[in-house]
Amino acid sequence: MNIFAHSSHFTPQSGGEFDPQRLKVQPFVDPDPFQELTYPTVIAAKQAIAEYLARPLAKLTPGQIAYINATLDSTLNKQVVMEKIRDFFNPLPGSHHAE
After folding, report:
1. Which distant-in-sequence residues (6+ apart) come within 8 Å of 36 by Cβ?
2. Is 26 left (phi over 0), alpha (psi -120 to 50) or beta?
3. Beta bridge partners of residue 10, listed in sequence order
4. What secondary structure does DSSP assign to 19-84, as a single string?
5. What is the dihedral sign for C-alpha 89, 95, 98, 99?
6. What is the C-alpha separation between 31 and 4, in angstroms, rounded?
7. Average of per-residue pLDDT values in the chain
8. Nearest residue to 50 (alpha-carbon basis) of 31, 34, 64
9. Looking at CB atoms within 10 Å, which of 19, 40, 89, 99 has the fewest?
10. Cα dist. 39→27, 54, 58 in Å?
11. What per-residue confidence (pLDDT) applies to 17?
């Protein structure tokens, strides 16, 4: 018994043989196809942050450096890191209120 007899990949034209031309192709969708989803090192992440901020990290305040270090201690995921950096350095108007 041929378990593939009813498969659409077998056609009478192919003599009941497997026809790879009939296989559906679905490309893999990668949000960052040429790079990794995480920074390889903390240094690489800091370089990306400095580039994003358009200034050397040495020019930041101790509090800003501490926030960056704490963020990178928790994750090297590019998306998470950059979301946190954007939110910290560019907060939405009205998102912080005086206590």
Report:
1. 78
2. beta
3. 18
4. -GGGS-------SSTTS-SB-SSHHHHHHHHHHHHTS-GGGS-HHHHHHHHHHHHH--BHHHHHHH
5. negative
6. 36
7. 81
8. 64
9. 99
10. 25, 19, 20
11. 73
Alpha carbon distance 61, 54 (integer Å): 15
Work out the average pLDDT over 72-85.
Answer: 97
Comparing 26-30, 39-43, 67-71, the range with the smallest average pLDDT is 26-30
**pLDDT digit string (tens) for 32-63?**
666 678 999 999 999 999 999 999 999 999 99
Place of tokens 């949000």: 31
Total-model pTM: 0.59
Which amino acid does the sequence have at 88?
F
Buried b (16+ CB within 10 A) or exposed e, 1-27: eeeeeeeeebeeeeeeeeeeeeeeeee
